[in-house]
Amino acid sequence: MDIKNVTSSLRIASQKLALQNAQKKNSALWAVADALDKNRSSIIAANKKDIETGRSNGMSESIIDRLMLDEKRINSIVESLKIVIGQADPVGDEVAGWKTPNGLNIRQVRVPLGVVAIIYENRPNVTVDAFSLAYKSGNAILLRGSSSSYNSNKEIVRVIKEALAGVEGGIPESIELVEVKDHDHRDVDQILNAVGMIDVVLPRGGKKLIQNVVMNARVPVIETGSGVCHLYIEEDADLEMACTIAENAKIQRPSVCNAIECIVVHDKIAEKFLPMLQKKFAGRVKLHADEKAYSYLNKDETVCLANDSDFGNEYLDYECCVKIVASIEEAIEYINSHNTKHSESIITESRAKARLFQAQIDASCVYVNASTRFTDGGEFGFGAELGISTQKLHARGPMGIKALTTTKYLIDGEGQIR
């Protein structure tokens, strides 16, 4: 990849986009939504090639699920794009404004970041999500997906570019896809070192990818976290509710970052709750239980004693660890020392304990009596998301349109000097 030429073209496109009003950007996005709908057969055909290759290479079915596109998921992609279209354009919003004693008018307004790069794994829906959020917020975007989803991403980008080229004011140069070659990561190194050419890079994927970007990038990074999420069952919890939420948070889509990887249980209800949980899971989840939890579970092929590496592990599969604690304080301490600052949930009937948990847990999203699976841009009403930011600077939690903007100060005077 010629990083200088690619980013130079993206920079020019971002400058054009920054001057467009919401109506023009929305018209272009409507054209893309229509094109994705009409080209779904070619997109699904390209995706099938990726799935066949993945299975032949031994990819797990839980990861295949992340990779897969079907009619229902294309519908979801198109609907998410329409939600983005319907949202207010943040560019130009006045965040604050005031007049100084000497008569200067100061306004703080939202502006695009410029050229954004995203490095992501497996999920081709991210291609559309990232593009739509970038375009709506006036940014050009460089996409670096994984080789496992390259055929899908390539076809989606082709459709997007053709749609933009066919609408008045569309800017097809605002999106570029890196041609990915197996086991060749030189292009990633180029992106991470593109100082002055790329304004920010976002990693979206597993722990290894995220750590590589965070540790080696010389350009600014918005860190999206792997998902070691916990569900804590307090002593006063509604245990039937707890079982239902655990089932949803673990089983619905175990390979996604907002699925739980550990169930923390108060000691006083563990003996009653754990057999209920085991019955609810019905052999669908392998439980890595600590010594005390193990004693309360029926011993079969779905139960084993946990070792130290299980606690804080992101399984991304039908596996989960179980930890017994003596108090909510111990639960909070344990979760904060083993999580990835993504999403955590408590099941409790006590308002005081719920608020203590939300106040003390260090994570971007903290739930009470609800599944962690709701940590998602679509569920939060953003339509799409760039990822879940687990850092504390610039953005935190699901990142929508505003996460791709920054602010600058516009100062109007009448000849004032200092």
* SSE succession: HHHHHEEEHEHEHEHEHEHEHEEHEHEEEE
Find the structural class using helix and strand composition: alpha/beta
**Fraction of residues in H or I helices:** 40-55%
Major sheet description: 7 strands, parallel
* Average residue pLDDT: 94
Shape: globular
Query: If you compute it from the alpha carbons, what radius of gyration comes out, rounded to the nearest whole angstrom?
Result: 23 Å
Give the strand order, joined by hyphens, for the main sheet: 10-9-11-8-7-12-13
List keywords for this structure.
418 residues, alpha/beta, 7-stranded parallel beta sheet, 4-stranded parallel beta sheet, 41% helix
Task: Describe this entry's structure for a reader.
This protein has 418 residues and is an alpha/beta fold. The protein has 14 helices and 16 strands. The strands form 4 sheets. The chain has a 7-stranded parallel sheet, sandwiched between helices. Strands 5-4-3-6 form a 4-stranded parallel sheet, sandwiched between helices. A 3-stranded antiparallel sheet has the order 1-2-16, with no helix packed on it. The N and C termini lie far apart (49 Å). The mean pLDDT is 94.
